[in-house]
Write a sequence for this structure.
């Protein structure tokens, strides 16, 4: 039995607990939150112990999910790695490049796994896009559009302190790295929007230089008057042989020497279950880590680069 602790018992923390309950031979034995009532509610769901401090996590726990607001990720993940636990950190890994690099160093020194919650990789449409990408030949450019509604609720009062790049689009950044096998080298241009009066940006437009001489145009925004219809993200890859446009959740347009519209069945995939199953297999030595902390570092480099010039 693989024993797991979950740190952070808000909405996504509860999603982690429900996902772990679907994985065989895995048990959540500790639910940690500074709010004792949240810890108790989570513990009631899984039968684990309600705790208010990570120092109380039992030593026989093998893996810990860190599911707290982004500003706390570094402090919690570093303490847990140093304490000998494998760590699965929700995105973004950190909000600072130096902190991300330090987490990678600690994980390497401690020989513990560090993984990042980039669950959109498990959506069927993006797995298919990764398979099809070679058909457009040498990659030249990539462009993204992301838009979601923002409805001010008490449970989301931390988002204006995090901003659209980290909270809205860090998945988008990661999908580019994963699908195309490229890494960001430099943010060439950044325009950050502040029409909602947030501490951080509510919209962004970036030009990014990637490895392999690929250039990206990335944009995303929160809007107040739209409605979430599960069609919030589009990414287009352009190559020497044509282009591929991926429209979440179920449509890929492939235009090379032929033209095809591929409808991808979103299927009944629980991406939380997929990524946390992978985490458990990694910490049990059954799979190699494909969600390593380095991917979190790459996304943080983009945001930090944009903030420096935007």
């Amino acid at each position: 039995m693989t024993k797991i602790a979950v740190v952070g018992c808000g909405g996504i923390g509860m999603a982690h607990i429900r996902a772990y309950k679907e994985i065989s031979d895995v048990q959540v034995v500790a639910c940690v939150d500074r709010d004792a009532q949240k810890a108790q509610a989570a513990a009631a769901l899984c039968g684990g112990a309600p705790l208010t401090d990570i120092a109380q996590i039992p030593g026989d726990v093998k893996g810990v999910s860190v599911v707290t607001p982004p500003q706390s990720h570094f402090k919690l993940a570093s303490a847990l790695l140093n304490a000998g636990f494998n760590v699965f950190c929700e995105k973004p890994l950190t909000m600072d490049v130096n902190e991300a690099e330090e987490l990678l160093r600690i994980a390497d020194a401690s020989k513990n796994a560090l993984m990042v919650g980039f669950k959109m990789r498990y959506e069927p449409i993006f797995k298919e896009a990764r398979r099809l990408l070679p058909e457009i030949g040498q990659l030249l450019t990539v462009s993204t559009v992301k838009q979601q509604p923002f409805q001010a609720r008490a449970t989301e009062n931390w988002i204006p302190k995090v901003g659209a790049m980290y909270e809205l689009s860090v998945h988008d950044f990661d999908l580019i790295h994963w699908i195309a096998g490229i890494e960001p080298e430099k943010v060439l241009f950044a325009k950050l929007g502040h029409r909602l009066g947030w501490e951080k940006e509510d919209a962004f437009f970036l030009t990014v230089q990637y490895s392999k001489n690929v250039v990206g145009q990335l944009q995303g925004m929160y809007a107040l008057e739209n409605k979430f219809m599960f069609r919030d993200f589009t990414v287009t890859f352009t190559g020497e042989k044509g282009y591929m446009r991926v429209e979440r959740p179920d449509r890929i347009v492939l235009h090379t020497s032929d033209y095809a519209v591929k409808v991808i069945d979103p299927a009944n995939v629980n991406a939380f279950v997929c990524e946390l199953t992978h985490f458990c297999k990694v910490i049990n030595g059954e799979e190699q880590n494909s969600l390593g902390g380095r991917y979190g570092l790459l996304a943080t480099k983009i945001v930090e680069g944009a903030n420096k010039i935007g």
The chain has two domains: 2-118+272-291, 124-267. The longest strand covers residues 139-149.
